[in-house]
C-alpha cells in the first residue's frame, strides 16, 4: 500500500478532543520564531566550529550548502542538530569541521546572520540539543477564550501525542513519493534528499502506530510489553504490570515508545506488539526498504511534554503562544491539539502555499 499525506497527518486522531479554535498561522515569518537551546557550552578549542545562525526564508539544508561553498569545505563537514522550517525566523546551530583554519565568512546574504563562531572538539550531530523554544502568533483566531484556556492548560498538564509534523513529509507528501521511488529500486544521489526520504517513511510508520495508540487511549499509558523511555534519554526498559502505577508516568518523566523501523532492535510484546505488527504489515515495502537501507531500529516516545507554556491575547483577534519542546518535538503536533489552523506559510518574495494544521 502506498502512503498519502492524509494518512501521514490529516487523518491522525487527536487526544484532547475536537479543535476549540481556528485561525491563521505564519502570515509572516516573524509569526513563527524558533530558538535552539544547545544545552552545553562549546569547548573553546577543537577541529570543529559551532556557528549560531539566525535565518529567515531559508531552510536548514540550503544554509548548510551555502556554508559549504562559502568556506570551501565538503558538504559532509557541515552538520546541524535539527531541521528548521523555511517559513519562520529561527536561530539554530551549525557545526563545521575546520581543523587548523579560521572560519572567514563573507558578508551574509539576505535572510542570514550569525554570531561569532566558537571552537568545539566534537562533531555536532542530529538531536544534540536540550530543546527548542517556540514563540508563535496565531491571527484571526476564532473560538471562545474559556475553552481555549482550558485546552492549553490540559496540553500543559498532559502533553500531546508526539507525532512527526507534516513538514517531515514534504509539500503534498513529496518526501513519501521519493521514499517509494527508492524502495521501488530508484536511486537518489543527493545524500541529504535521500536522508529526508528515508526519515519521512520512518516517520510515517511511527505516526500510524501512534495514531492507533491515541485511538485506543493508550498513548500516554504503560501497557505490559511496552518499551518505556526516560525523558531526555534514548535508553529503554520493559514495562511490567506495576509500571502503569509508577508516579513518573503521570509526572511526564517516563513515556511509552513507538518504532522507528530498521534492522535489529528490542521487540515489544503483548498488546503493543499486536498494534505495531498490524500497522507494519500494511506497509511491507516501507519496512523492507528501511531495513535494507541499513537503518538500525530505534524507539521514540509516544508522548510529547510541552514545557513553560505561556499564552497571551493580542489585539485584532490574535494570540501569542510560547512553549519549549524537547529535541524532535514538533510545534504542529501541539497546535493540532488546540485548533484547526490554516498555515499560510508565505514564502519570501513568493506566493502562498496553504495547508491545514
How far the N terminus sits from the C terminus, by CA atoms, comes to 25 Å
The overall strand count is 18
Structural class: alpha+beta
Question: Class of the largest domain, according to the CATH hierarchy?
Answer: Alpha Beta
How many helices? The count is 9
> What value does the Rg take, in angstroms?
21 Å
Under the CATH scheme, the architecture of the largest domain is 2-Layer Sandwich
Average pLDDT, all residues: 92
CATH topology of the largest domain: Pseudouridine synthase
Summarize the helix and strand pattern as letters: HEEEHEEEEEHEHHEEHEHHEEEEHEE
Helix residue percentage = 25-40%
Tell me the fraction of residues in β-strands, as a range.
Answer: 25-35%
| Shape type | globular
How many strands, what sense, and barrel or not for the largest sheet? 12 strands, mixed
CATH superfamily heading of the largest domain: TruD, insertion domain
Number of domains: 3
Written overview of the protein:
This protein has 357 residues and is α+β, with helices and mostly antiparallel strands. The chain folds into three domains: 5-20 and 161-304, Pseudouridine synthase (2-Layer Sandwich), CATH 3.30.2340; 27-31 and 132-151 and 308-356, no CATH class; 40-128, 2-Layer Sandwich (Pseudouridine synthase), CATH 3.30.2350. Helix content is 27%, strand content 26%. It contains nine helices and 18 strands. Strand 15 and strand 16 form a beta hairpin. Helix 4 (174-183) crosses helix 5 and helix 4 crosses helix 8. It is globular.
Amino acid at each position: 500500500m502506498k502512503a498519502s499525506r492524509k494518512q501521514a497527518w490529516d487523518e491522525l486522531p487527536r487526544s484532547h478532543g475536537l479543535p476549540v479554535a481556528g485561525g491563521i498561522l505564519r502570515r509572516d515569518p516573524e509569526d513563527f520564531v524558533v530558538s535552539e537551546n544547545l544545552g552545553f557550552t562549546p569547548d573553546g578549542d577543537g577541529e570543529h566550529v559551532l556557528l549560531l545562525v539566525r535565518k529567515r526564508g531559508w531552510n536548514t539544508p540550503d544554509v548548510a550548502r551555502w556554508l559549504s561553498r562559502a568556506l570551501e569545505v565538503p558538504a559532509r563537514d557541515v552538520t546541524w542538530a535539527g531541521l528548521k522550517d523555511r517559513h519562520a525566523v529561527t536561530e539554530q546551530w551549525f557545526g563545521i569541521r575546520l581543523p587548523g583554519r579560521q572560519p572567514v565568512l563573507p558578508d551574509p546574504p539576505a535572510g542570514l546572520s550569525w554570531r561569532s563562531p566558537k571552537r568545539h572538539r566534537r562533531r555536532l550531530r542530529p538531536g544534540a540539543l536540550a530543546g527548542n523554544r517556540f514563540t508563535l502568533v496565531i491571527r484571526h483566531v476564532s473560538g471562545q477564550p474559556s475553552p481555549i484556556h482550558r485546552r492549553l492548560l490540559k496540553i500543559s498538564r498532559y502533553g500531546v501525542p508526539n507525532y512527526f509534523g507534516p513538514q517531515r513529509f514534504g509539500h503534498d507528501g513529496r518526501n513519501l513519493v521519493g521514499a517509494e521511488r527508492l524502495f521501488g529500486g530508484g536511486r537518489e544521489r543527493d545524500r541529504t534528499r535521500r536522508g529526508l526520504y528515508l526519515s519521512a517513511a520512518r516517520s510515517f510508520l511511527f505516526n500510524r502506530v501512534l495514531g492507533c495508540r491515541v485511538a485506543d487511549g493508550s498513548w500516554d499509558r504503560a501497557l505490559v510489553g511496552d518499551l518505556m523511555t526516560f525523558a531526555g534519554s534514548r535508553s529503554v526498559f520493559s514495562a511490567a504490570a506495576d509500571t502503569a502505577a509508577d508516579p513518573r508516568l503521570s509526572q511526564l518523566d517516563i513515556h511509552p515508545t513507538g518504532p522507528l523501523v530498521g534492522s535489529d532492535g528490542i521487540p515489544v510484546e503483548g498488546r503493543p506488539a499486536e498494534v505495531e505488527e498490524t500497522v507494519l504489515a500494511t506497509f511491507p515495502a516501507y519496512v523492507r526498504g528501511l531495513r535494507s537501507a541499513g537503518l538500525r531500529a530505534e524507539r521514540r516516545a509516544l508522548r510529547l511534554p510541552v514545557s513553560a507554556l505561556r499564552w497571551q491575547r493580542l489585539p485584532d483577534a490574535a494570540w501569542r503562544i510560547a512553549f519549549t519542546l524537547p529535541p524532535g518535538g514538533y510545534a504542529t503536533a501541539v497546535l493540532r491539539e488546540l485548533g484547526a489552523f490554516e498555515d499560510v506559510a508565505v514564502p519570501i518574495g513568493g506566493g502562498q502555499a496553504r495547508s491545514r494544521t
